[in-house]
Design goal:
The protein contains three helices and no strands. The protein has 81 residues and is mainly α. Helix 1 runs antiparallel to helix 2.
Length: 81
């Protein structure tokens, strides 16, 4: 049987974002919001966490190769020396 092979980064991003969404929903429930509102808060937290985690994990990828991403500031070489 062929298995669906997902990149490890994608699995990590999805797992951590689901944990963040569950935490946001739990905190919303403990704060006294209703069940429906807590679920919506959890879904919103999952969406935001996916974007943030993707940006954080992809920050250093490809910067050490020629033709990779450009530095964040013009004087990045001065900071390392």
């Amino acid at each position: 049987m062929d298995r669906l092979r997902l990149p490890k980064r994608m699995v990590l991003v999805v797992a951590l974002s689901l944990v963040a969404g569950a935490g946001a929903g739990l905190l919303s429930t403990l704060a006294g919001d209703g069940a429906a509102r807590s679920v919506l808060y959890g879904f919103a937290a999952v969406g935001g966490a996916v974007q943030v985690l993707h940006l954080v994990l992809m920050q250093g990828r490809g910067s050490d190769r020629r033709g990779g991403r450009r530095p964040l500031c013009a004087k990045a070489e001065d900071r390392h020396g």
